Model the fold of this input.
Amino acid sequence: MTIYSFIFYLLAILIVVTTAMAITRRNLVHAVIYLIFSFFGSAMLFYLFGAPFLAVLEVIIYAGAIMVLFLFVVIMMKADTVAERIFDFRQWLPVAVFGLIYIAIGMGIISAEPNSRIILKTALAAPAEFGQFIFENHWLSIEAVSLLLLVALAGALIIGRRSRRPSAPETTDGEL
Amino acid sequence: MIVPFGHVLILAGLLFLMGILCVVTRRSLIMILLGVEIMLNAVAILLVGSSLLWQHLEGQAIVLFVFAIAAAEVSIGLALIVWAYRRTGSMDPSDYNLLK
Done:
């Protein structure tokens, strides 16, 4: 067992435990904070897998921007409406059955896959090399994605804008 | 020498299952969107691992686009949640029955 495999198993346990804590919390703020730890673990995993640029992006975009956006929305909601109803226990049976089927089929596929026994070798994709690869092979997709982000920005602004007619009957009830 | 590729597959599969469970069992729109984020993160881990397996940069390039699309999806999704909360005063999807 090398130091790299030790780090991998440590990070895997960290990611799985913090994600499990996040999806079982009743309090939304606690869930978001646990998920930030999970994303930091994923960023370190990316660094271990030789993708330092993606590790930086994971911290900036996921743990930074997206989780802060979630925190802002949680803070904007009133506390009494954020509290969640208890999950109906009659629905647990299908969830458990299909989860077990998923696990069984997944383990079968992984054990039958010949690539799954190959030991990964350490490698490093330097950010300069990665950027050159992206802009040589995927320059059109980069432009399309930047256009998508612009459209998403405009769409979020239009959807989130307060209605001009505050006297409309359906908006006065739940107005923040 | 890190680990066999199968262990990366198991980790990504477990994370994806947790995302599905969060989407299916939680009754709050914010937790449902968080479950989608967990699933996208699991896919990103798997893509970076397979990029290391085949020693090719294509997997990491796809992860870059996954990040961009996750950011766009979350901004639109949260704006829609805030809009629906202003309309109905509730975060529970089963309360959205204005057509009833």
User: Anything to note?
Assistant: Chain A touches chain B through 89 residues (CB under 8 Å). The first helix of chain A runs from residue 3 to 24. DSSP finds eight helices and no strands in chain A. The two ends of chain A are 55 Å apart (CA to CA).
